[in-house]
Amino acid sequence: MKPEIIKRLTKINGLLALVVLAASPLFAQETLTLDKALQIAGTNSPGIQTSLLNLERYQKNLEAQRAALKSKFTLGVTPVDYTNTRRFDTRVSEWYTNESFASNATFRVEQPILATDGTISLVNRFGWQNSNAVFEGGNSTESKRYTNNLYLNLSQPIFTYNRLKLQLKELELSFENAGINYALQRMNLEKNVTQFFYNVYMSQMNLSITRDELGNTQKSYDIIKNKVDAGLAAREELYQAELNLATSKSSLQNAQVNFENAKDQLKMYLGMDLFTDILVLADVAANPVPVDLDKAIENGLGNRMELRQREIDVETSQFEMIRTKALNEFSGDVNLAFGIIGDNEKLGQIFDQPTKNPQVQLSFNIPLFDWGEKKARIKAQEAAIKSQELNLSEEKKQIIIDIRQVYRNLQNQLNQIEIARQNERNAQLTYEINLERYQNGDLTGMDLNLYQTQLSTKKIAYAQSLINYKIELLNLKIQTLYDFEKQQPILPAELYKQNQ
């Protein structure tokens, strides 16, 4: 960028600040730069807050699942268990009345086995029971005893997939995907804030240019009015000057309304107080940045988080295929238990004569016929997996196309900046020449108004071309995750960091 252009833009920024400050009400006004706007949005934006809450939800779900893989300690207590019922003793074919009072507690330690999807448990059940029975013949019996049942149990599914591992992996991928969504939301936030910010800047600049235009139109009106009053110009020239002045005042009013509307949109997106007045200060000097297209595509394909999202979709579809294949599957369960049971009237003698209680159980689930349900569901899931793989392939192609488009737009914008700069300079010189002709009476007010409008249009077009270049640079950074201005990559992990 040439030094004279930068100097002119700095002067415009200063004039814009003075004009807007002079036109603002007499209350506190907050000055916003683009960096400050991004900082405010990173904290207050509703979209970012929603993404953070979603990220926290998946993070806590993952933490809960990992905690569930650790040993679980439980204690069940039944302090009172009283029954009084009529029973039939099949051994002696006699009815009897049984009254029982018991109290017991069960302590259990369960440890899931991630490697095998099994569960190993240590259980101890301790209790006391007072039971008496009265038979029809008048005989009665009574028993008061302490009991303790201690055993180790292993439950292991066989011939099936590991559900614990699959569930944990799904939660890990969900958390990763939520982190990617948050990072993409932050990048999208930067793009939107930049767009809203420059919309306010352009509205602010348009307001300043419209004020200058009104000032020039007022001068033209004063000149022609003096000439008409002196009889040096026709009265229809005065009518045209009045029309031009009224049009300029209307344009100024419209520019003021557009400026206020643009500020409200920016404040709403940033999450700011809508009653806070703001003034934006922007450096729109667009220094040409060298861009290597091959390097841009390489970084885009290597770092774009959308590709990882499509890979997660493929993995998730494969998990669903595992579940589908498990429908009506041949599977089994193995249960092994070993322990000792002791009982005695005296607490200290419970295990004087313990009884061993080993248990072995092997069971199978054998599907016989499902009318083709499993086969059809597998075919459907295969189609879903191929669809996700196709999405991954198309995403790569779209990334290459988008990067190429941005690269071409950048090259084109550099040319547009130079053209717009030259057009603005020519429009300024043209207006100054024709203003002198107007003052000498060689040009009508209508013609001068056309040159004034042309000058305003070219000024806005020049500023817009500079902004377009900066927005395309930002777009390139988002598309490639590489900052060509700083010549450094943007690591996706950095985007996951939350603003403190």
Describe this structure in words.
With 500 residues, this protein is an alpha+beta fold. The chain has 2 domains: 3-60 and 169-313 and 386-495, Up-down Bundle (Outer membrane efflux proteins (OEP)), CATH 1.20.1600.10; 71-113 and 118-160 and 333-366, no CATH class. It is 59% helix and 22% strand. It has 10 helices and 11 strands. It has helices at 3-23, 34-44, 46-68, 163-229, 235-270, 293-303, 305-325, 373-439, 445-480, 492-495, and strands at 29-32, 72-89, 94-113, 118-135, 140-158, 277-280, 331-344, 355-356, 359-365, 482-483, 488-489. Strands 2, 3, 4, 5, 7, 8 and 9 form a 7-stranded antiparallel beta sheet that branches. It is elongated. 20% of the residues are buried. The model is unreliable at 1-27 (pLDDT under 50).
Q: What is the helix content?
A: 55-70%
Classification by helices and strands: alpha+beta
- Globally, the shape reads elongated
- Helix-strand pattern, N to C? HEHHEEEEHHEHHEEEHHEEH
Radius of gyration: 41 Å
- What is the CATH-assigned architecture of the largest domain? Up-down Bundle
CATH topology of the largest domain: Outer membrane efflux proteins (OEP)
List segments where confidence is low: pLDDT < 50 over at least 5 consecutive residues: 1-27
Strand content: 15-25%
Mean pLDDT over all positions: 86
> What's the CATH first level of the largest domain?
Mainly Alpha
H/I helix tally? 10
Beta strand count: 11
User: Largest sheet, if any?
Assistant: 7 strands, antiparallel
Tell me the count of domains: 2
